[in-house]
Amino acid sequence: MKKATWISGAVVLALVxxxxxxxxxxxxxSAVQYRTATIERGPLQASVSASGTVNPVTQVSVGxxxxxxxxxxxxxxxxxxxxxxxIAEIDPQTFEYRLSSTxxxxxxxxxxxxxxxxxxxxxxxxxxxAQSDLAEAQRTHERxxxxxxxxxxxxxxxDRTRAVMISAQESLKAVQALVGVSExxxxxxxxxxxxxxxxxxxxxxxxxxxxxxxxxxxxxIKRTVEKGQTVAASLQAPELFVIAQNLSDMxxxxxxxxxxxxxxxxxxxxxxxxxAFPGQNFEGQVRQVxxxxxxxxxxxxxxxxxxxxxxxxxxxxxxxxxxxVVTESRExxxxxxxAALRVRIAGVEPAxxxxxxxxxxxxxxxxxxxxxxxxxxxxxxxxxxxxxPGRGASQRGRIFLLDAKGKPxxxxxxxGVSDGTSTELLVRPDAPNAEALVEGATVITxxxxxxxxASPARAAGPRMPF
Length: 466
Description:
Helix content: 25-40%
Number of helices: 4
Number of domains: 4
Low-confidence stretches: 360-392, 450-466
Order of helices and strands: HEEEEEEHHEEEEEEEEEEHEEEE
Radius of gyration: 49 Å
Largest sheet: 6 strands, antiparallel, barrel
Structural class: alpha+beta
């Protein structure tokens, strides 16, 4: 009996020991575990990512202002051309015949001017003759009047000479009017000559336009015409060639989202990659931000022109470029991983941080970012805009540090620019938490275990929008 009692007690003790061991293991498994990182000091760059197309700075579309059949094409793709070089020719026969016709009309008009000048000379001669006849009639009439007064001739003879004098006066007026008519005919003929000369000049211009020449020095990057093809220039000149003036100085026309265009300024540095040369970065600079908006499916974008030197000639027009424009840069700042700003632990209250004069309200930090992403990650609301971080204001956030005993401590912090992976910590030297927020401090970036299953863990404090 006594032996059975001892056996039963040993079994009970074994069961209690096993249960205690199992309970300790279960508690250990359910304990809170933290993923951590350190606050670092280093450079930080905020940027905007976009896509665009590589284009020449200057490219000229060469067309034709006259219609006809293409008689010859003298250049091909990638042909280097000089200004005024003949690159194509349209059959000129129709325009040569038109020029000959207008030239004949001009010659006829010039002959008409000579005829009008001759008629004018004849009219002036008739005026001189009529003036002589009038003077003779006046003298004859005056003599007859004297003779009538002396009684040598009859009054009828004086009346006859008076009628002759009046007729000579009217004849003079008639030939003088003819002189005015001949002068007007000369002016009309001269105006007709000017009109015919303009028609000849137009015909010559049309004939010269059958010779298609290059307007600039450059290289042919597009050709849309073949020998024997008929081109018709009516309301719009058909495009025959596209000539890039200089392929060593090119640009990327990048489409910038309207949420990011306020951060892009001329002079900012930019880099881009192309699929043709993977892993290679090409450097450039923002030259212009065009104010003309493009709306496609209610998505508004603006074009930012990124200029770069293409000395090697490897980049070709039309390539797709993935552009990254550096909007703000910090050389040596405290930075914390963005994951640390998303951590929330229930029951841990933050240490109070006095609000600075440039701090944005905490509600602004908690608002979701509605703009596009930079570097593949969402951006802090208001970052990089006028009045946002890096431009005289900061955002508020919360991080959790591990103290010497391994316990989490919450801190409300001020945030600066972000590169999508890390965010700048703005710590004033006189802030109460300045001693804790230092380089090398351990910051919590994730929580696993019992605390992660509690819903209040996600409700404590504002949640940063990244």
